[in-house]
């Protein structure tokens, strides 16, 4: 009789454990279904709202003139250095005017250059970042509230695609293009100024994080008898004095480099929006991974 009772007791424990496991499984399944049905869409809506704000920053209208983009003037200079001063006009992704004063190192003579009236310079970094934001928004709008996610993998796939676009958008603003000095010398930017830039001055504009940067290079020609140590510089965002290059059979050396910059507040906003959005995507992926043990019982 004792043995019979022990056997019955063991069976009851096993049955209870089995029932408990089934109840836990049903509870996890309900929780996971709620996540797929409700919370995922709440996060997608939040992401869309944030990224619409980011997209709006790239195309701020002129107050009272909805059809035209707002023009903003930025003064670039340094209180400790007056060799280069500039006033740049930014309208969306385009520099529509640039007014630059350069003090020549040897003579202290000031040279003045401005964009020709028929010219403006597209800042490719801003254009690319805006395109990536729009692509992220398209991905999010392709899954509206009526769409039913069936698996965690499906949500992860969407989050990965959105995060890729946001990372690319951020990287375009945080990583300026590297250029060789001959590439800079033959760039279309050199042909945009009046009076034309002299052969011993080069300029470059780029975005670094939330800053609009202007770099001015002053050059001197290397005489044929001094070129035995000639070593052309590679590709870089910012070249240093002493960097050498050759163009049209003439060898040059950079004698002076001046960099001035200023913060563009709305670029700072967009970088904050990218960070918040990437965190939201990652948090949703983390919540889904909590259920990974449950996916052993159900196709992922």
From TrEMBL:
One of its GO terms (cellular component) is synaptic vesicle. Its main location: cytoplasm. It holds the Pfam family Rogdi_lz. It is found in: Cytoplasmic vesicle, Secretory vesicle, Synaptic vesicle. InterPro entries: RAVE2/Rogdi (IPR028241). Belongs to the rogdi family. This is Protein rogdi homolog.
